From TrEMBL:
Belongs to the cytochrome b5 family. Keywords: Heme, Iron, Metal-binding. This is Cytochrome b5-like isoform X1. One of its GO terms (cellular component) is membrane. It comes from Trichoplusia ni. Residues 46-124 form the Cytochrome b5 heme-binding domain. The keyword Iron applies. Pfam families: Cyt-b5 (PF00173). GO terms for molecular function: heme binding; metal ion binding. The gene is LOC113500049.
Length: 166
């Protein structure tokens, strides 16, 4: 099928997205847009990164601009001059988990959709902060239980009892 407009491409993308998610267990795939405008989908596992990997890519000293939104890693280096809030606003989230800042900024539903082309990976399972539905994972508190203290002091009653028996 040849796609002749952006609207047709979006409709086709949604159809293929639904189809692929129904038949494969992998949540992610790449979209390749050749010059002639055809959409070609290929299966690809997303690369896994740690927060330390993201932190060094904070846009300084020639580093790319990476940030995390709900445990997904995005590379916004090519978007730095296009961001409606400006370069400085984009840089506030560089190298960190920018989920709260992104949500608090009042972005439109279109802004959330525009994230997809910049997705490059996900956070490793050990460092995830969100579940598969995008809900914040509540950390369980681990409380150390103190062992019971043995009574090393003797009460008056113990002294009297021991004195009478012994």
């Amino acid at each position: 099928m040849r796609v002749t407009s952006l609207a047709e491409g979006a409709a086709l993308s949604a159809d293929i997205d639904t189809y692929l998610r129904g038949i494969v267990a992998i949540d992610s795939y790449q979209v390749v847009l050749p010059v002639d405008g055809r959409y070609i989908y290929t299966m690809a596992e997303l690369k896994r990164y740690t927060y330390a990997d993201v932190a060094i890519r904070n846009g300084t000293k020639g580093q790319p601009i990476w940030m995390v939104y709900k445990d997904v890693v995005y590379d916004f280096t090519s978007y730095k001059d296009e961001h409606p809030g400006g370069y400085d606003t984009l840089m506030e989230g560089a190298g960190i988990d920018a989920t709260s800042a992104f949500d608090d900024a009042g972005h439109s539903s279109d802004a959330y959709k525009q994230l997809e082309p910049y997705k490059i990976g996900v956070i490793v399972d050990e460092e995830k902060k969100y579940d598969a539905n995008g809900k914040k994972i509540k950390k369980q508190k681990v409380v150390a239980v103190q062992p019971e203290k043995q009574n090393t002091s003797r009460s008056c009653m113990n002294l009297i009892t021991c004195g009478l028996i012994g």
